From TrEMBL:
It is an enzyme of class 1 (oxidoreductase). It comes from Kibdelosporangium banguiense. Its EC number is 1.1.1.100. Keywords: Oxidoreductase. This is 3-oxoacyl-[acyl-carrier protein] reductase. The lineage of its organism: Bacteria, Bacillati, Actinomycetota, Actinomycetes, Pseudonocardiales. SUPFAM superfamilies: NAD(P)-binding Rossmann-fold domains (SSF51735).
């Protein structure tokens, strides 16, 4: 599986699944631009990966709640590299709250980052890809968006929306040769799940047929497949990477 000659953008690429995705794409030969909220961190992570892998990786600052900033960044990437072949809309936030404790701020953060941020990232990427009439986009959904989770109503709602962003835009963009898919991770060992109590982790593990938590590298490898030519006839799918937990 090679991505040699491809130009990729990964939002939220400084840690967790995002960073592993940047690594996986760069290892396959892609030129990768990663984004993070903090410019210094984004450049530092990009520099580390570029040196380690002897690959073309660069970092830029991006707040995905700013639609104008997303559009400007994507246009800049496409102009600098002459095209945009791959976009992974990974940036997102997680905040737990029982339904009785959900306030306007929580709802706004979940929807503006996870939903609006994903929509505008896909929109900007699609505009850049339409000129070449080819491209592959992957969005980060979640098993929580598929089956719900107590204490995560706002997050679950946002990730259910993300899954339907993939399905709907896949129907629109197929005529331009652009594929859109999503991945729905289960419980993955990242900073986002580090706050979970031991009993919660134990229950999730017991409910998972593979009887363990997932690793971010395992999600990244699925993303790499979905954006590659190996998945050339795959679009509009939400592929679970959950060890069977959705069952």
């Amino acid at each position: 599986m090679t991505l040699s000659g491809k130009v990729a953008l990964v939002t939220g690429g400084t840690k967790g699944i995002g960073r592993c995705t940047v690594r996986a794409l760069a290892e396959a030969g892609a030129t990768v631009v990663l984004t993070g909220r903090d410019e210094a961190t984004a450049k530092e992570v990009a520099g580390e990966l570029a040196d380690e892998l002897n690959a073309q990786v660069s970092g830029l600052a991006l707040d995905v709640t700013d639609s104008a900033a997303i559009g400007s960044l994507v246009r800049g990437v496409a102009k600098e590299h002459g095209k945009l072949d791959i976009c992974v809309a990974n940036a997102g936030v997680l905040e737990d709250a029982l339904v009785g404790m959900i306030n306007d701020d929580i709802v706004t953060r979940m929807l503006s980052t996870n939903v609006a941020g994903t929509i505008h990232t896909v929109q900007a990427a699609a505009r850049a890809m339409m000129r070449k009439r080819t491209g592959a986009i992957v969005v980060l959904a979640s098993i929580v968006g598929e089956r719900g989770s107590a204490g995560q109503t706002a997050y679950a709602a946002s990730k259910a929306a993300v899954g339907n962003v993939a399905r709907s835009t896949a129907k629109e963009l197929g005529r331009y040769g652009i594929r859109v898919n999503g991945v729905a991770p289960g419980v993955i060992e990242t900073a986002m799940t580090a706050h979970l109590a031991e009993d919660v982790i134990a229950k999730r593990t017991a409910d998972t047929p593979l009887a363990r938590l997932g690793k971010p590298e395992e999600v990244a490898r699925v993303i790499r497949f979905l954006v590659s030519d190996e998945a050339s006839f795959v679009t509009g799918q939400i592929l679970g990477v959950d060890g069977g937990l959705v069952l």
